[in-house]
Specification:
- The chain is of the alpha/beta class.
- It has 19 helices and 22 strands.
- The strands form four sheets. It has a nine-stranded mixed β-sheet with strand order 7-8-6-11-12-13-14-15-16, sandwiched between helices.
- Helix 16 (439-460) runs parallel beside helix 17 (484-496).
- The longest helix is centred in the last third of the chain and has 22 residues, at 439-460.
Length: 545
């Protein structure tokens, strides 16, 4: 079989809507080769659940990136249907043959996980409307807000978004597993007593499925090319959202052009209803070149004049004025269909990059034909995800944010400076957790971004931002430890930019010192990913918040 995206998707389509299929059909659909046994192992075959090995039971299919001989033995003991893997290690193949247990080895694990997602959607929640969100920044907040607006409108909604974006990669079967578990829980019968899970009587458990998809994904150091396209196509979405295109995932991709190619998979995958594009990001706007027939584009913007004058798009098609959702600085409000719907003071966020997320969320819900009053009410009572510009304290103001790439870091530091200015605060302390195991290039780019934005803001304001760095060796695990060369590139880049800083090895020490330095009328920004994740709990344990 040809190893192409389109031939595999076409083959998958043939069996994804069937409640059952043979192991041979499955292997063909995911471009895999069967070892050990040319049939499902469990007597009734595949029961309809894609699972992890730890939680699998009889009839489940397990998808794992790697498996060894011991794992194959465990799978047989559990009476699962078959194992699918990318990397059979040690004696996995020999053990599969020895004990006559089926192991499917694939060339690309994403085809297996995409099939699991597609089958689960089409067989367990076929009547749901699907929304897919991607982009370098803001996808978690946007998907979480869309989920909230729909739930607040009393719909049943699934989402894979959580505070740490743990399930947005879709390179394992977790989303298919999560949907299956929640569908099974909603039934009034013992689903395991059915011949096939696809025989469940209630297929209206979810009115909407809102899925966040990583715009760039890899396994190890290898780019999983077309990840966003493959996973979005598997979802067959009604509405897609692209937030922005910026550098992240250095090593997997090394240019904005590569990020553009990967992220544009969302637009390529949308074949009906609508796509929401960030007008202010020219790379996102250029994705109109991939717009499929019958797809209605919505545009979001923070530039009232530019979006108002945008009448003919790149495909020489007239732009629907009703599909422009933007923030008007003159009216200090969000505008939909030419009317103010939410004033600045009514928004759950007051920083520009988060207002962009609100615009995207509103647009997606408009594309789903949700009543405008429902959307307004949902935005007003929205509670942000953890570590998304969350205020932990009032005196001093302590802001906690997850920003972890150059554009996000710049936007968050600017937002903190604006907050300090608006509230007439005296000092702004920035405490940044260096990202471990991310290499020289990404840490260099993040450090460069910090240096640039601090120099820019210092020139604009009387105050000078006080910068502190943490390697957080007292909290990070081995996967996120800051290497000496990563610390060196980070600090040397700041030195080149003439930015003063103080570095701490331990998170608890920097938090103690900065808190004691700050006065009640100052602002402290805690920013960064893994190394800064425990900050709130550390401050709580110290009795500071």
């Amino acid at each position: 079989m040809a190893n192409t995206l389109f031939s595999i998707t076409e083959t998958s389509n043939k069996i994804a809507s069937q409640k059952t299929f043979s192991i041979t059909e499955l292997a063909e659909a995911i471009d895999g080769k069967i070892y050990g046994l040319n049939d499902f192992y469990s007597k009734k075959g595949f029961n309809g659940i894609f699972e992890t090995l730890n939680e699998a039971v009889s009839g489940d299919i397990v998808i794992r990136h790697w498996i060894n001989g011991k794992g194959v033995e465990i799978a047989k003991e559990k009476d699962i249907a078959c194992l699918i893997t990318l990397n059979p290690t040690e004696d996995a193949i020999e053990k599969a043959k020895e004990i006559s247990f089926p192991v499917i080895v694939v060339k690309k694990i994403q085809f297996a996980t995409a099939f699991a997602l597609k089958w689960t959607i089409e067989n367990l929640v076929p009547n749901s409307k699907r929304v897919v969100i991607s982009g370098t920044n803001g996808k978690s907040t946007t998907s979480h807000m869309i989920h909230h607006i729909l739930k607040n409108s009393e719909y049943n909604v699934f989402t894979n978004t959580d505070a740490e974006s743990e399930f947005n990669t879709l390179i394992d079967p977790m989303v298919a597993k999560m949907i299956s578990e929640q569908v099974i829980e909603a039934q009034d019968i013992d689903v395991r007593s059915l011949d096939y899970v696809a025989d469940i009587p209630n297929k209206s458990v979810f009115d909407y499925v809102v899925v966040e998809v990583s715009e760039v994904q890899g396994w190890g150091e290898e780019l999983m090319k077309n990840h966003a396209l493959i996973m979005s196509s598997a979802l067959n979405p009604n509405v897609g959202v692209v937030t922005n295109v910026a550098m992240d995932h250095i090593g997997l991709v090394n240019s904005l052009d590569e990020v553009y190619d990967e992220t544009s998979g969302i637009v390529k995958a949308i074949n009906k209803d609508a796509i929401v594009l960030n007008y202010d990001d020219k790379r996102v706007l250029n994705m109109l070149e991939f717009l499929n027939d019958d797809v209605n584009p919505f545009f979001t913007s923070m530039d009232e004049v530019a979006i108002s004058n945008y009448n003919i798009n790149e495909n020489n098609n007239a732009v629907n004025e009703d599909n422009k959702v933007f923030f008007s600085k003159s009216k200090n409000a969000i505008i939909v269909k030419g009317k103010s719907i939410l004033n600045f003071d009514e928004l759950p966020f007051n920083s520009e990059h988060f207002i962009r997320n609100i615009l995207s969320s509103i647009s997606a819900c408009l594309a789903l034909n949700l009543p405008i009053n429902n959307i307004i009410e949902g935005v007003k009572n929205y509670k942000p995800l953890d570590r998304r510009f969350i205020k932990l304290s009032d005196e001093p103001i302590i802001i906690d944010d997850f920003a972890h790439n150059p554009d996000g870091v710049k936007a968050t530091i600017r937002a903190s400076s604006t907050l300090a200015n608006d509230l007439d605060k005296k000092e702004l302390y920035v405490v940044f957790g260096i990202r471990g195991s991310r290499g020289e290039e990404l840490n260099g780019l993040i450090s460069q971004a910090i240096g640039e934005v601090i120099n820019e803001l210092d020139a604009e304001n009387d105050r000078k931002i006080k910068l502190f760095l943490s390697s957080s060796i007292d909290y990070v695990n081995s996967l996120n430890t800051v290497k000496d060369f990563e610390k060196a590139i980070f600090t040397s880049t700041l030195d080149k930019n003439g930015v003063e800083y103080t570095h701490y090895d331990n998170l608890v020490d920097v938090l103690k010192d900065v808190y004691n330095l700050a006065n009640a009328d100052d602002v402290i920004l805690l920013i960064g990913a893994q190394g800064m994740d425990p900050a709130e709990s550390v401050l709580t344990d110290l009795g500071y918040i």
